[in-house]
Design goal:
The chain contains eight helices and seven strands. By secondary structure, the chain is an alpha/beta fold. It has one domain: NAD(P)-binding Rossmann-like Domain (Rossmann fold). Strand 1, helix 1 and strand 2 form a beta-alpha-beta unit. The model has no long low-confidence stretch (mean pLDDT about 95).
Length: about 260
């Protein structure tokens, strides 16, 4: 059976753990050559040891100088680029807006939005040189719903949708497709931390807060990192060759964020 991404060269930011790791592994299973970056040296070392055909370096996408080094390394390692997955992101603070520290706001925007711009700015010339390709940006259901107590995160994820749509229109003539994925509640340590913080803010227990959140999901369950990876694979493969400019929710039909 032909592999969906045979011979494709892919960069996945924050690719050593969580959703990024799931995407990188799924792409590799479909024949892609993988390069990842991450800020966690231990996670990066473990990923490269577990996936000997892949390459990667430490890089914080919020730092333009580190992004320049990242893309120099990608070009040297892969010889070009066909797929860019802008996955790097942080949850940001869980606080009332008047209690959000300016530094926390700035850091959330710097990683979730500015880092995506820095990587896209460097990645697009490589995609054009390859004759086209695909960009996948990670947004969130918080990029289509209001999210009280999570204003920095929600603002950054709404911005990702606008960035995605604008890039799709700009880059379409160059055969570069741009989509974003909007995960819902993704099972794992990050959402556990968010639930814990929101439970504290509401003065209730973890389990009660979790059930409140799941009550707003039609399927009454969380999604997984592998679910997100499958959507990323679809939009980057031939099956998704006519899909661009879309914000695609993988969320179990999440209706309201609390």
């Amino acid at each position: 059976m032909d592999k969906a991404l045979a011979g494709q060269r892919a960069l996945v930011t924050a690719g050593a753990s969580g959703i990024g790791r799931a995407i990188a592994r799924r792409f590799a299973a479909e024949g892609a050559r993988i390069f990842v970056c991450d800020v966690d040296e231990k996670a990066l070392s473990a990923f490269l040891a577990e996936n000997p055909g892949s390459s990667g370096i430490l890089a914080d996408v919020a730092d333009p100088a580190q992004v320049h080094r990242l893309f120099d390394a990608v070009a040297a390692s892969l010889g070009g680029l066909d797929i860019l997955v802008n996955n790097a992101g942080i949850a940001g603070p869980t606080r009332k807006v008047e209690e959000v520290a300016v530094a926390d706001w700035d850091r959330c925007i710097a990683i979730n939005l500015n880092g995506m711009f820095y990587c896209t700015r460097r990645g697009v010339p490589l995609l054009k040189a390859a004759g086209g390709g695909s960009i996948v940006n990670l947004s969130s259901v918080a990029g289509r719903l209001g999210y009280p107590l999570r204003t920095p995160y929600a603002a950054s994820k709404w911005a990702v949708v606008g960035l995605t749509k604008s890039l799709a229109m700009e880059l379409g003539p160059d055969a570069i497709r741009v989509n974003c994925i909007q995960p819902g509640l993704v099972a794992g340590p990050r959402i556990d931390g968010v639930i814990d913080a929101k439970a504290e803010a509401f003065g209730i227990g973890f389990d009660e807060m979790k059930q409140r959140l799941l009550a707003n999901v039609s399927l009454r369950r969380m999604v997984t990192a592998d679910d997100i990876a499958e959507m990323a694979l679809f939009v980057c493969s031939r099956a998704g060759s006519s899909i661009t400019g879309q914000a695609l929710s993988v969320c179990g039909d999440h209706q309201v964020l609390q």
